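Below is how a single chain appears once it has passed through the pipeline. First comes the sequence as given, then the structure the pipeline wrote out for it. We keep one example in the README because the format questions we get most often are answered faster by looking than by reading.
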Amino acid sequence: MSGFKNMSVVVDGESYRTALARLLASDQAEGVYLFRAHNSDYFVQRHAGRDELEVLSPSRARELYERLPEKHQPPVNAFPRQLGGVGLDTETPFDDAEERERLRRYHSESF
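Resulting structure:
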């Protein structure tokens, strides 16, 4: 497996999209990718037999984060509410130019 796949799933009326979420940690060899969505929920994408997304509680996400070998965000950025990050829990794709451009490309290709 060479990275996460662009997927979108609706769970309990909330939409979870890998293309718009923040990648927190991963294990590429096992095909496991932990994300934080822009609504601050956590979800994991797994490639085991079939691709799937599963929404996680903050405590389960933190446990998975600790086990995954590849960290893409430091703990305070990954878990701002639990670790006292200021303002990081309301991050949007408009916070930096690279994210704005990625979002613009995503919308132009999707519609």
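Residues 62 and 79 are 8 Å apart (CA to CA).

See the next section for the split statistics.
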